[in-house]
Amino acid sequence: MTAALSLGLDTFGDVTHQPDGTLTPMDQVLRDVVDQAVLADETGIDFIGLGEHHRDDFAISAPEIVLATIAGRTHRIHLGTAVTVLSSDDPVRVFQRFSTLNALSNGRAEAIMGRGSFSESYGLFGYDMQDYEQLFEEKLDLFAKLVRDHKVTWSGQTRAPLRNQRVYPPLGPKGLTTWVGVGGSPESVVRVVRQDLQLMLAIIGGDPRRFVPYVDLYHRAVDQFGQKARPIGVHSPGFVAETDEAAREALWPHYREMFGRLGRERGWPPVTKDRYLAEVEHGSLYVGSPETVARKIASAAKALKIQRFDLKYSTGPQPHAQLMECIRLYGERVIPMVRDMMTSDRVPA
């Protein structure tokens, strides 16, 4: 595989620990995220994605505003969400925010639409979880039309209809790259093809090769719908340090804290270090030295035949200084090694 691979980063703006162990105030976390994105731009990283959440452990609830701030301090990095929770938002307003961001950043905006992995936004904005499927299906359909068409006619059950409606500001001549985050259901893969959007696979556990059938399904659906095959991406968590041991030990307490909290909320068993290390060794945790992480990314990219890989570099309350060092190593050392492996065909099996 010799096609160019784009390499990016994602963060949810996790509330971090300060040097004295206390939690960083959210306003400072947001400013830290901007600094992290500036460093990503300076080190040659292709994309930064900010997730939308409405919880006390993540600071980013309005990602497009943070991205607009980042746009004013960066020059080349592409800017997007990871993800926009479209089910509990209005597609017209989402389009307006992204078309504005795209204008301010000189065409660097990308949208990643999804349902999100948490349910807080539904009650917060007055939506019923019983309408989970219909909300996303209809709103994605409308957003896809807004991205493609200058005038939109649409009707459904989840919002007022539109008739020959223009929405401002319009997109520039290159339009807006739009992805759909998919966690692993065949129906979701086919929906992406039907809407002629780009597939972003959220692989947060297990061997990434188990998603090969979904990539194959994507290409079969492309043929059946008569669509053009578009880039496929993967989003997975990880952390880079100078050595494998340093990376594993730095991440572990924060990984344990985050998944321990989620486990208590969702009834999962407690996370163990053995399970964590097994995921690092054999699953979709890209944790280690630059060499180790580069080999693992290149191997997954080869197996899945993807065109984009985004590393979710923040997991739990990991300190800002550690995140900055991870970003520096990813941009300066991991990305050049991955690209060398991909172009020279020296990808690990």
Report strand order across the widest sheet: 1-2-3-5-8-9-10-12
Separation, N- and C-terminal Cα atoms: 13 Å
Shape: globular
Please outline the major beta sheet: 8 strands, parallel, barrel
The number of E-state strands comes to 12
Question: Can you give a write-up of this model?
Answer:
The protein has 349 residues and is of the alpha/beta class. Helices cover 45% and strands 16% of the residues. It contains eleven helices and twelve strands. It has helices spanning 26-42, 63-71, 91-104, 120-124, 132-148, 186-194, 212-225, 244-266, 273-282, 290-304, 320-344, and strands at 6-11, 47-50, 78-81, 84-85, 109-114, 152-154, 162-165, 177-182, 198-202, 232-240, 286-288, 308-312. The two termini are 13 Å apart.
In brief:
The protein is 45% helix and 16% strand. The chain is α/β, with parallel strands linked by helices and 349 residues long.
What layout of secondary structure does this protein have?
Blueprint (H helix, E strand, L loop, with lengths): L5 E6 L14 H17 L4 E4 L12 H9 L6 E4 L2 E2 L5 H14 L4 E6 L5 H5 L7 H17 L3 E3 L7 E4 L11 E6 L3 H9 L3 E5 L9 H14 L6 E9 L3 H23 L6 H10 L3 E3 L1 H15 L3 E5 L7 H25 L5
Parallel strand pairs: 1-2, 1-12, 2-3, 3-5, 4-5, 5-8, 8-9, 9-10, 10-11, 10-12
Antiparallel strand pairs: 6-7
Helix pairs in contact: 1-2, 1-11, 2-3, 3-5, 6-7, 8-9, 10-11
